Amino acid sequence: MTEMPVTRGRRDSIIGGFMARKYANKNHAVPEEDDDSTFKRVSNRDLIHGVASSFFEAAYQRLKSSKASDGITIDEDYDQFAQFVPSESSDGFWKDENFRQEYELGSELGSSQTSEPEKMAEKPKSERTRGTQEHFIDILLDKMISTILPENFPEREHFSQRLNDPDRKRRQKLSATILASNLKILTTKLGSIFELQDSVIRLVAWRNPSGTITMLIMVTMICFNPIYLAVIPLLYVLYGLMVPGYMHRHPPRRTNFLSRKQYGRSLIVSLTSGGKRTHNYLNEDIREYDYNLEADPQDVKKAHNIKQSMEFVVNLRDLQNSMSAMVSLSNSIERFVYGTAGFKDEHRSTVLFLAGLGALLLSGIISPFINWSALLAALAWLSMVAIHPKVRPKLAQVVKKEQLDRGKEALKRTERYDVILDEQPEVRVIEIFEIFKKEALSNNWSFVKYSSSVFDPRDSFRKAQVLPPGVDELECVCPPLTWSFDANSVWEIDYNVGGWSTERCLNLQIDDQFLVDDAFKRRRLTRKVLRYASPARKPSYK
Amino acid sequence: MPQRAGKFHAKLVQRQGQRTALTFATAPQISWTLHRLYPLLLICDGILSNILWCCDDVCLPFIHSVLLVLSTNILTVQDGASFARRAVESWVGTMSCVLLLLSFVYYISSVLHELNADEPPTLEDIIVMVETVVYKLEVIRDDLREPLKMSSQELVTVLVFITPVHWLLMKYLFSSNDYLVFLVLFCSVYHSSWCQCTLRLLWRSLYVRQLLSLVCGRTRDAGGIGQAAFYVVNNSGIQVPRYTSPLEDLSSSSFSNRVRKALDGVYDPDLVSKHSSTPVSAKVVEFRIDENQRKWPLDGWTQNMLPYERSKFTASQDPASAECSSPWKFQESLGREWCWLDDAWKPEPWLYCDTHWIARGENDSLDCYTRRRMWKRRAFQCSH
């Protein structure tokens, strides 16, 4: 129930599977509230609250015990979790080549360069300590945290700075109980916000046509006199909050007699109705005729409790849905910020930028000659009329699909041929060392490897008596990530041996193109690499 | 149930939802007439709901008012505006006028159409609708009661007061167009519960009340009325014997004692027989002064009055409740021709009133906001 808002759709099945298995194995592990003897006495509402709090209680206990037992720091904890995370985002958007960063390690260059033995050793150990005696809630919690925590740790300084910030330290520590209680309180109080959200949806969908027209009238008023923007909130406070409060305390005598049927329709409503309205706006001041003479106060209380618990569940569901909506909204914002606005697709972004610039200039030039109030008001009315459920299909008929397609085609052609991407690429030089080994008996040199390491006597690999990482053939040498070889260049031998050896402070013997020591000799090969553009920006948590 | 709670609570009287079957108790002619009246009732109800803003959809009255305000554009002439603006405004005005009329016609036709399509209403339905219409009319009358309570004199004062204000406002602040729009809006909003609540909340302010009393000319009278208002005449000419030898002082206590006796109808044979006395005609009156108090939520009963209403002490007999000093000060200011019959001022018990000084009873209750009591003392005056 309560955990669902945090998990995303794809994970539901995994967690569901876990829960099913764990329930099958451990019947004693279910929370206390489900106990049969107590079940009958707890009300529906208590049960829901109880289950919610027990889940968070268990989470809290788990956090506490894990802290007490191994006393790990948050970094270690993070490392531990980071390895359990399966490659998180299958989302192709972030896997795009344009997002590949310099610090990201390609799988082909692999882990041989930076091997962290401790980390490798810890993995099986930690897996062992987690053992088999887990509560399903623990697994859930782990899963939750693994979804919350990012895959990588790109900006450690930034992160630790935030942790050590005295301002943050003074604030409350992360606590699952506080989180849970806050969630519980918020959930009960969020009803009005969701109601507002629903009413906005009704307004936009023309399911409350008179409300929509009222809204449009207000928008028009604001357009023609922007001071209403400041007045309307005050008006709301006075007449949306205070007068109803007054009316609640001192009801004006306005009884609504219930008639069998409401006769007559309004022209405005039947003209503009976009669907069945599902909500009646009953005035606070209209008291409905009280037919329920024999109402028992106990029954009323019970009904109130049931209504309250229903509301709680509904609110929780709405909270979850609005969270998912927020996630998808932020996703699309990100897509815009890092994709379209981040020059991921350079053609499209260039066209967009030029169009925006043109619009900016145009609006700057012609704005004094336009009655903006009338234009904005007309736009608001037109757009609302255009999305009216009855008008939209007709509009769609008018604007034929082929026309749209043709427009798209033209746009694509513009992107393809009217935007010229011929900037000078970035030019850099890469180097590789061709290492030869002196044969033990003869004075001949045999080829060992192409490596980025000079492999001089002070080299760490040399000291460890292992060969440096490298390849055997020149064709296997790849350019650095995000770079590509200049096809018109070839590997060149660097004859200025003195130059590059003194740069590296190597006082070794120079033999023509080689730098020679007692066992090995190497020569430096260089080649030009090109890059058209640096990788596009990418958020830290991706 | 009440027993469970420990205390027994009585129930409020509810209007009975079910009524006895009317079908057989009503004459067919009346039923038929009511049946013919039903569409008219429905339409009336719809219009009244719109005026009271109490329909299911509160946005509709708002839209109607906006249309009404826009329609006033036809009526107004704006000389300063450009031709295009005037053209647009009168077009919008005409269109909204037409839309308003159309929607009214549509409403009527839809009512008739739905009535025809639906099964005929029962007599109970009709009666409920009659009650609804009557109730709504009553609400409208209640809303208008306070403003219409003004006397014709007050109305004249208001008109005299407001006319120059109007003239100034229209001359320097608002155009006639704005004024018309304001008037139309005010009229269309007046019966909504929001407006009524606003008025009631405004009425809580002392300054608003003061302003209104100023406009209506309901200011406190600063006395100035003759002493006739301060007393009631008990006996306009009672014959009281008077000693001639020696000539008795009329203000002496023995004489007033005799006046008292004469009032009570006690015959004093001793006096009549022994002394040849010439009877004196005495006018006996009772001075009555009201002491007024008002209840304040925090301080309880105090002599703090509203600035425009009666003061602490008023003359009871004066219809306008003229101001008066306290009884003890009053007696000092009284002329020498009056002689006291009673020894002291006697108070009557408090009479509790509502906020308009209309008596409610002798006990303080929730709806009592003011109280008054009468101080009485009798006096006489001899005519020679």
TrEMBL record, chain A:
Domain of life of the organism encoding this protein: Eukaryota
Taxonomy of the source species: Eukaryota, Fungi, Dikarya, Ascomycota, Saccharomycotina
Region ranges (Disordered): 107-128
Subcellular location: Peroxisome membrane
Domain TECPR1-like DysF: 174-527
Comp. bias (Basic and acidic residues): 116-128
Keywords, in A-Z order: Membrane, Peroxisome, Transmembrane, Transmembrane helix
Membrane topology: Multi-pass membrane protein
The keyword Transmembrane helix is annotated on this UniProt entry: yes
GO biological process: peroxisome organization
The keyword Cell inner membrane belongs to this UniProt entry's keyword annotation: no
Pfam family, one: Pex24p
Name under which the protein is recorded: KLTH0C01826p
UniProtKB/TrEMBL annotation, chain B:
Protein name from the UniProt record: KLTH0E13706p
Protein's organism: Lachancea thermotolerans (strain ATCC 56472 / CBS 6340 / NRRL Y-8284) (Yeast)
One Pfam family, short name: Pex24p
Subcellular location: Peroxisome membrane
Major place of residence: membrane
Gene Ontology annotations of biological process type: peroxisome organization
Transmembrane segments: 62-84, 90-108, 155-174, 180-203
Xref: InterPro entries: Peroxin/Ferlin, Peroxisomal_PEX28-32, TECPR1-like_DysF
Gene Ontology CC annotations of this record: peroxisomal membrane
Keywords: Membrane, Peroxisome, Transmembrane, Transmembrane helix
Domain of life the protein comes from: Eukaryota
Keyword Transmembrane helix: yes
Domain Peroxin/Ferlin, chain residue ranges per copy: 282-348
Membrane topology annotation: Multi-pass membrane protein
Record's keyword annotation contains Transmembrane: yes
